[in-house]
Amino acid sequence: MEINRAEPHWPQVAAEIRRRIEAGTYAAGERLPGTVALAAEFDISQSTASRAMASLRAEGLVRVVSGQGYYVA
């Protein structure tokens, strides 16, 4: 996925991760890439990746396991 640099980045990343979850690329209970990996994949900052994951968590699509990472809810 190519990030549109003229638009805010975190909603675009959140939408792509949401699409992958809905498409079954990431199955329920599966561990998701961490913020460092997402930052590298999308060429964004780690804080932007964190914000994208926080929005997915607020939607109930992602859960956090302390010290382990993000998982598909």
Give a structural overview.
With 73 residues, the protein is mainly alpha-helical. The protein has one domain: Winged helix-like DNA-binding domain superfamily/Winged helix DNA-binding domain (Arc Repressor Mutant, subunit A). The protein has helices spanning 9-23, 35-42, 46-59; strands spanning 62-65, 69-72. Strands 1-2 form a two-stranded antiparallel ribbon. A hairpin with a 3-residue loop joins strand 1 (62-65) and strand 2. The longest helix has 15 residues, at 9-23.
Poorly predicted ranges: none
Name the average pLDDT.
97
* Overall structural domain count: 1
**Percentage of β-strand residues:** 5-15%
How would you name the CATH homologous superfamily? Winged helix-like DNA-binding domain superfamily/Winged helix DNA-binding domain
Second CATH tier, the architecture: Orthogonal Bundle
Largest sheet entry: 2 strands, antiparallel
Q: How far apart are the termini?
A: 23 Å
Q: Strand-and-helix sequence, N→C?
A: HHHEE
CATH topology: Arc Repressor Mutant, subunit A
Number of strands: 2
Indicate the overall shape: globular
Structural class: mainly alpha
CATH class membership: Mainly Alpha
Number of helices: 3
Query: What's the multimeric state?
Result: single chain
Strand order of the largest sheet: 1-2
Rg calc: 11 Å
Q: Give the helix proportion (percent range).
A: 40-55%
InterPro entries: Bact_HTH_transcr_reg, Tscrpt_reg_HTH_GntR, WH-like_DNA-bd_sf, WH_DNA-bd_sf
Protein name: Winged helix-turn-helix domain-containing protein
Domain HTH gntR-type: 7-73
Keywords: DNA-binding, Transcription, Transcription regulation
